[in-house]
Amino acid sequence: MKEEIEKVSPKEIEKRSFEIITQELEEQGIVLTGIEAPVIKRCIHTSADFDYAKNLLFSERAVEKALQALREGACIVTDTQMAYSGINKKRLSEYGGEVYCFMSDEDVAEKAIREKTTRAAASMEKACLLDKELIFAIGNAPTALIRLCELIREGRISPRLVIAVPVGFVNVISSKEMVLTLESVPYIISQGRKGGSNIAACICNALIYQL
Amino acid sequence: MKEEIEKVSPKEIEKRSFEIITQELEEQGIVLTGIEAPVIKRCIHTSADFDYAKNLLFSERAVEKALQALREGACIVTDTQMAYSGINKKRLSEYGGEVYCFMSDEDVAEKAIREKTTRAAASMEKACLLDKELIFAIGNAPTALIRLCELIREGRISPRLVIAVPVGFVNVISSKEMVLTLESVPYIISQGRKGGSNIAACICNALIYQL
Question: Which of A9, A79, A209, B114 gives 20 to 30 Å between its CA and that of A124?
Fold first, then answer.
C-alpha cells in the first residue's frame, strides 16, 4: 500500500478521498446512489472501514425526514463529548439548530446514582425536558439507546431521527434491535457491533452538509 | 448476531467487553501478551474492528517509554478537538500532564493562511513552543504528521512518543511511513488507512490507564 505524498491542496483532499471511496466501492460492485450515499461514504471516509457500505440501515426516507427536521431548526442530542466535539455546530446553527451532550452534567450524574442507572441513560431523560425538535445521535452507550427507546414507547419523546450507532460487545446489537421495533420514528442504524462517537458525528455532518 | 440484553452493571460492561475481545482473538489464533496488549485491545474495544489486532506497529519498548514519560508529567498534543475530548484529562492530570489541541486557535488559523499550509500543520509548529515533555497523538491530519516529522528532523522538537494514527485515503499511508524513518523517537502506528481521532484518544487512554 506504498503511496507517494500527493500535492493536494487541503480543500481538495476530501474531494479526492470521496472519489477514491466511490471508485473502490465500484470495484467491489457497489454503486451507491440516492440521498443515503453521502452518509454511507462519509462513514467510510471517517473510518477507512468499507464495512459501512453494508452495515448501515436506513428506515424509509430517513435522510429526507432528517434533512427536513434540520431545515426546521432541529437540535442534536448525543451521548458523548467526542461526538459533540465532532459535529459541525457552526453549520448547524445556520439553520437554528444546536448540539447538546448532557453526559458531564452534575444533575445527570446525581440522577444516575440516585436511580442506579448510567449517566448515559439519565442524560436521555434530561433530553426529554428540551422543548425542541430533536435528532438523537447515540455513538457509545447501549444504555442511552435502550432508555431512549423506552422513553419513545412511553410517549415522553418523539425524535425526528434516531442515529443508532453505539459500538462494542455488550448489549450493543440488542440495543440497536430495539430501535427496529419503534414505530414511526426514522432511524439510521449501524448493524452489528460497529459504530462509535466518530461515526455518530460524521453521520450528523453528512446530513448537515446536504442542507 | 442476535443477542439478548444482558444484565451487566455499567462498571462490568468494559470488563466483559475485554474478556470477549480476548476470547475472540484467541479463537482467531491471536494471543496478545505484554504491555502492548491493553493498547491493542482498547483499539478493538473502541472500534469493534479486529483489524487493529494486526495493523498496530510499536517501536521497541514504545509503551514502556510512553509510560515513563507520562509518569514524569508529559503532556499530550493532538490534532483534533474530538481526540482532545476523548482523552481522560482527569486521570492524566494526576501525573501532572495536560492535553492540548491548537486546531481552533486564531493564531494557528492566521499562520496557516499566511504560510499557505493547513491549520493542522501550523498547530504542530505551535506545539514546538511548549516548554514541556510531549506525546503527540495524531488521529486525523496527515499534514500534521508530515509537519511533525519535519520538525523532529530539524531538531526543533523531540517527542517522547508519536501516536501516528491518521485515517483516510490521501497521504495517510505515506505520512505514517515518514514516522518509520525517524530515529530515536518512539512511535505507535496504525499501518494502512485506518485510525482516527477515536483511536488516537483510546491509545492515549490505554497508556494512561496502565499508569
Answer: A209
Please, are residues B192 and B173 in contact by the beta-carbon 8 Å criterion? yes
A6/B171 touch (CB, cutoff 8 Å), yes or no: yes
Strands lying side by side in the sheet with A187-190: A56-58, A187-190, A161-164, A134-138, A75-78, A99-100
Contact assessment for residue B161 and residue B66, using Cβ atoms and an 8 Å cutoff: yes
Q: By the 8 A CB rule, do A52 and A194 touch?
A: yes
Q: Which helix (H) or strand (E) holds A34?
A: none
B102-133: pLDDT as tens digits: 999 999 999 999 998 899 999 999 999 999 99
pTM: 0.95
Q: Which residues of A touch B171 (CB under 8 A)?
A: 3, 5-6, 8, 13
10 Å Cβ neighbour count for A38? 18
Q: Are A75 and A98 in contact (CB under 8 A)?
A: yes
- For range B38-63, the mean pLDDT: 98
Whether the complex's predicted ipTM is more than 0.85 is answered with: yes
Segment A18-21 long-range contacts (CB within 8 Å, at least 24 positions apart): A18/A45, A20/B169, A20/B170, A21/A45, A21/B169
**For testing contact with chain B, the best of A104, A170, A176 (most B CBs within 10 A):** A170
- Rounded CA gap, A17 and A45, in Å? 7
E strand or H helix at B134: strand B134-138
What is the grid cell recorded at B175? 505520512
Mean per-residue pLDDT for B81-105? 97
Identify which of B203, B199, B211 has the alpha carbon closest to the alpha carbon of residue B49.
Answer: B199
B174 interaction partners in chain A (CB closer than 8 Å): 2-5
**Catalytic center residues of B:** 45
